[in-house]
Amino acid sequence: MVLYADFECPYCQAYIPQLMRWVKVNPDVALRWHHLPLAAHEPVASREALLAECFGETGGAPMFWDAVEWIYAHTQGNGQGVVESNNPPGLSSARQACMNDERAAAIVRTQTEEATAAGITATPTLRLLDGETGRTLKLEGAVDDDVLLSALDWLSSAPIVNREENTPPRMFVDDVGDMPR
C-alpha cells in the first residue's frame, strides 16, 4: 500500500493515525509513504516532509514513522505548521543539517513529481498493489477499514475469466428497463 500524503492536509491529519493503527493490526500489509505536499500548503508542507525524511535518513524507518506521528500530532494544519517553539524530540544537529541538504529535498520533489505524473493530485490517496496478481487500485480520501479490507480482497482474488476462451466474461446490454443509458 502506497500512501500519498501532505503533512498540512487536515484530512491526512485526521486519517493517517487511524490508517497506521490499521496497518499495525494487519501484518500482511506493508505501508509505504510518498510525499505529496500540496501547493496550497507550501512552503510548510515541504519543510515538514524534509523533517520526516531526515529523521528517516538518520534513524531508519522507525524514526521516520515516529516523525510522521509527531508532525500530525503537532501541526496546526492548512499550511500553518507546527508552532516554532515546539521542536520534535531528537532534533539533532545532523537532522537539522540534513534538512538543508539537497538530497532530502530531491526525494520529496521526485515523489511529488511521480505522484503528479500518475494522476494523483489529492491527499490522502492510497494506491494498493498486489505483488502476486499485479492488480492495482487507487483510493482517494479517508477510506474506512471495511473498504480497505474489501479492496485488498478484490486485489488478491483471481480475475473472473471465461474458461473456454480464457477471456473476461462478456456483459450483454439489456434494452429493457428504465436505467438511463
Can you lay out the helices and strands and say which pair or pack?
Elements: E1 2-5, H1 10-24, E2 32-35, H2 44-74, H3 93-99, H4 102-117, E3 125-129, E4 136-140, H5 145-156
Parallel strand pairs: 1-2
Antiparallel strand pairs: 1-3, 3-4
Helix pairs in contact: 2-3, 2-4
General description of the model:
- The structure is a single chain.
- With 181 residues, the chain is α+β, with helices and mostly antiparallel strands.
- It has helices at 10-24, 44-74, 93-99, 102-117, 145-156; strands at 2-5, 32-35, 125-129, 136-140.
- Helix 2 (44-74) crosses helix 3 (93-99) and helix 2 crosses helix 4 (102-117).
- It starts with a strand and ends in a 25-residue tail after the last helix.
The secondary structure category is alpha+beta
Q: Helical amount among residues, as a percent range?
A: 40-55%
**Counted beta strands:** 4
Largest sheet: 4 strands, mixed
Mean pLDDT: 88
Overall 3D shape? globular
Over all CA atoms, what is the radius of gyration? 20 Å
How many helices?
5
- With strands numbered from the N-terminus, the spatial order across the biggest sheet is 2-1-3-4
Low-confidence stretches: 169-181
Q: What's the N-to-C terminus distance?
A: 35 Å
Q: What is the percentage of strand-forming residues?
A: 5-15%
SSE string, helices as H and strands as E: EHEHHHEEH
